[in-house]
Amino acid sequence: MNIEELREHLCATHPDLCPLFSTEFGDGVLGVERGELHDAASDLRDLGFDRLGMVTAVDRGETFELVYRLQSRSMSAGMFLKCEVPRSEPRVRSLTDLWPAADWQERETYDLFGIEFEGHPDLRRILLPPEWEGHPLRKDYTDDRIVPRPDFI
Amino acid sequence: MALDIHSSCPAVDDEGRAVTELVVNVGPSHPSTHGVCRVIAHLDGEVITKAETVIGYLHRGIEKMTENRTYLQVVPLTDRLDYVGSMYANWAYCRAVERLAGIALPERAEYLRVITCELQRIASHMMAMGSAAADAGAFTMFLYAFNQRDFVVDLFERLCGARLTYNYVRPGGVSFDVPDDGWLDDVRAFCAQHRGAVAEMDKLFFGNVITRGRLKGIGVLSAEDAVAWGASGPVARGSGVDWDLRRDDTYSVYPRFDFEVPLGSNGDAYDRNRVRLFECYESVSIVEQALEQMEPGRVRAEGLPRLLRPRPGDAYDHIESARGSLGVYLVSDGSPKPYRMKVRSPAFCNLALLEKLAVGHMMSDLVVILGSLDPVFGEVDR
């Protein structure tokens, strides 16, 4: 199954997900609502996306864009599963029960962005010390120790 | 009351309660880790019942720093990720930038990237196997392996002036063409002697009965677990997961080369290290084919702007580094600086397996398992 067949399959089985699927930059991108994230991920895993490559987030101001990158060995394909998480209530269901690979990467996303993953077995800071305040990869994070780089351009 | 001296001494804590569990801190500093890692090992006698990995001692916030630099200024930061295999981080980052900005490469640049990165794989695997051998007590193997690594590092020093942080691969190509003092001939000479050196190491280390005793059956990882936990590179291939990005999600000029993907079958520390040894064989073969096919030409794309402003969007690209699938996720907002960069590092995902692999083994096996995962902490912590 290639990305185009995957799109057809998605349109047949999940008509509501189909318009959210795009293939810009060569990879499939599927954007879902926060509540449907776990179900969509579970479906994609059954379709052959057996590896969870990457978990990260992007600070988009009012919302965080949570990005899971899935990979399929049988299709030699990769795709993004994205979901918007509001900054006011940064909470989403964890995918650790589908892929144990999410364990450390979700901890890292929690550490650096402050997004809480419900159902995660061990949600603690991983890269920063436990007593650290704030979440450094948020765009509004400030700290005296950050020295701005002079703008040469 | 008479005390039976043949029973074990009853251990008690401060309040007189019997203690059966011993907690030992391994690290933060240990020679097997190429960096700083602490393992909190809970022991029952000599057997590990729980091993908690504590990382973050080397966290430098590289992903945050990229948001304050232009696309070209980020390249030297990527050297500091995997500092025993800098070429890979350079390459993965540059591929993501090229994909985002739509830059096409001249062919010679692709060949030079393949040659340097396959040499880098040999250097990195020599480091991994040499230090893993030193952990198991085989110091001669350590010296043999580092001797080979030094040849590669000398070649890199002549190529780009650095022995550790190369900064050689740039968006749009590579920084310079090879020096004209017979560098390519010396690469050929290195390849010619390397096969013999690998065969010698195989006999010396992997054929040794003590090595087999120390490494076989230690830290067994099944193929299903390797996939589910996101392991990649020699860690996954040691378990028999037949997946190599160079062949299965191919990039650059790799389809033009003929090479095999070595696989293990038991998924233990022995197989993981032996896969690395066989990959060195294959890397030599790829370098020789690339030298054969490479033709003169430009090494950087023409008409590159001084300041890259990729269109808004996001791109992910990954390559097969010495430790596995190394991916870079870049988000652009159209400005000259990356809006967000995320490095999907193979060492981070492989190291997550330590807590699972160490349980049930002896304390002395912990360093062998850690060494067989080959973590580089610049890449784990970023």
Short description:
The complex is a heterodimer of chains A (153) and B (382). Chain A has helices at residues 3-13, 37-46, 102-113, and strands at 21-22, 28-32, 51-59, 63-72, 77-86, 91-93, 116-118.
Name the average pLDDT of chain A.
Answer: 79
Number of continuous helical runs of chain A: 3
Morphology of chain A: elongated
The number of strands of chain B is 8
Keywords:
heterodimer; A: 153 residues; alpha/beta; 7 strands; B: alpha+beta; three-stranded antiparallel beta sheet; 45% helix; 12% strand
3D architecture notes:
The complex is a heterodimer of chains A (153) and B (382). Chain A is of the alpha/beta class and 153 residues long. Chain A has helices at 3-13, 37-46, 102-113, and strands spanning 21-22, 28-32, 51-59, 63-72, 77-86, 91-93, 116-118. In chain A, the strands form two sheets. Chain A has a five-stranded mixed beta sheet. Chain A has a two-stranded parallel ribbon with strand order 6-7. In chain A, strand 6 (91-93), helix 3 (102-113) and strand 7 form a beta-alpha-beta unit. The N and C termini of chain A lie far apart (46 Å). Chain B is α+β, with helices and mostly antiparallel strands and 382 residues long. Chain B is globular. Chain B has 15 helices and eight strands.
